[in-house]
């Protein structure tokens, strides 16, 4: 591990809005599960979660724009999360937190009905057929989201990957979920400011390669 990564890991643990609960803490009952608003954000605002947030550009960007909502970015990679956590700390943004954990552990991090909205930004496409259930919009993951989401939660997906996008459209159709909007080139659609006003690290990489950016949103029930 590089010295810089070690420094970032050490600094993460000094941020009061950065959490990396051990698995045993999760299964014995994580102290903020069901209490993010009452015990951490100390308000009753809607809770928006970004899954696989990487460096957290999207969570930070939305958090700056919507101080009347709470935002939590989740990723497994501590060195990436450091970027978002550092900006949040530097700018003293009270409505943002980051959690270093697998999305698979969502139900240990949040109580039923605690999450109001979900963003999935540039997920790993998991292209092998044997990895289908690892896709963040697979039926298995949608069932995980159902355990923590409010009834009729909106899920947003932003991706460069056509296979992943089409796969998600199929799952939405198979499960008879209302599709609110979809575009194979969101930058052709000036009406979707929240989607186009913030670029993530991976978005910039894919856009530089000439990929169009796809976006859809649907209701999970
Ligand atoms: C392609 S990157 C995109 C990161 C960021 N959303 C962006 O657009 O720059 C995918 C991210 O998902 C994270 N990730 C993949 N599977 C995950 C899982 N099961 N739980 C938590 N994070 C995961 C990876 O660590 C990585 O940071």
Relevant terms:
221 residues, 10 helices, binds S-adenosylmethionine
If you had to describe this structure to a student in words, what would you say it looks like?
The protein has 221 residues and is an alpha/beta fold. It has a single domain (3-20, 43-220), classed as 3-Layer(aba) Sandwich (Rossmann fold). Helix content is 36%, strand content 22%. It contains 10 helices and 8 strands. It has helices at residues 3-12, 23-27, 36-41, 57-65, 78-90, 106-109, 139-146, 162-174, 193-196, 201-208, and strands at residues 18-19, 47-51, 70-75, 96-100, 115-121, 149-159, 179-183, 214-220. Strands 1-4-3-2-5-6-8-7 form an 8-stranded mixed beta sheet, with helices on both faces. β3, α5 (78-90) and β4 (96-100) form a beta-alpha-beta unit. α1 (3-12) crosses α5. The longest helix has 13 residues, at 78-90. The radius of gyration is 17 Å and the shape is globular. The termini are far apart. 35% of the residues are buried. The mean pLDDT is 96. Bound molecules: S-adenosylmethionine.
Describe what is shown at a glance.
This protein has helices at 3-12, 23-27, 36-41, 57-65, 78-90, 106-109, 139-146, 162-174, 193-196, 201-208; strands spanning 18-19, 47-51, 70-75, 96-100, 115-121, 149-159, 179-183, 214-220. It is α/β, with parallel strands linked by helices. Helix 1 packs across helix 5.
Strands, helices and their partners?
Elements: H1 3-12, E1 18-19, H2 23-27, H3 36-41, E2 47-51, H4 57-65, E3 70-75, H5 78-90, E4 96-100, H6 106-109, E5 115-121, H7 139-146, E6 149-159, H8 162-174, E7 179-183, H9 193-196, H10 201-208, E8 214-220
Helix pairs in contact: 1-5
The chain binds S-adenosylmethionine.
Residues 52-54, 74-77, 80, 102-104, 121-124, 200-203 line the site of S-adenosylmethionine.
């Amino acid at each position: 591990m590089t010295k810089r990564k070690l420094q970032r890991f050490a600094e993460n643990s000094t941020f009061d809005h950065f959490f990396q609960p051990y698995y045993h803490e999760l299964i014995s009952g994580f102290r903020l599960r069901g209490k993010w608003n009452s015990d951490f954000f100390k308000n009753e605002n809607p809770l928006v979660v970004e899954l696989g947030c990487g460096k957290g550009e999207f969570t930070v960007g939305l958090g700056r724009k919507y101080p009347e909502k709470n935002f939590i970015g989740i990723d497994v990679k501590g060195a990436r999360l450091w970027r978002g956590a550092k900006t949040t700390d530097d700018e003293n943004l009270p409505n943002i937190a980051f959690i270093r954990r697998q999305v698979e552990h969502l139900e240990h991090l949040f109580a039923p009905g605690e999450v109001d909205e979900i963003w999935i930004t540039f997920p790993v496409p998991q292209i092998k057929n044997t990895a289908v259930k690892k896709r963040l919009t697979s039926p298995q993951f949608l069932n995980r989201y159902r355990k923590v989401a409010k009834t009729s939660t909106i899920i947003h997906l932003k991706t460069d990957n056509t296979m992943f996008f089409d796969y998600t459209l199929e799952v939405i159709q198979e499960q008879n979920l209302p599709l609110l909007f979809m575009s194979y080139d969101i930058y052709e659609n000036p009406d979707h400011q929240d989607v186009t006003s913030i670029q993530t690290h991976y978005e910039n990489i894919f856009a530089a390669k000439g990929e169009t950016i796809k976006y859809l949103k649907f209701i999970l029930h």
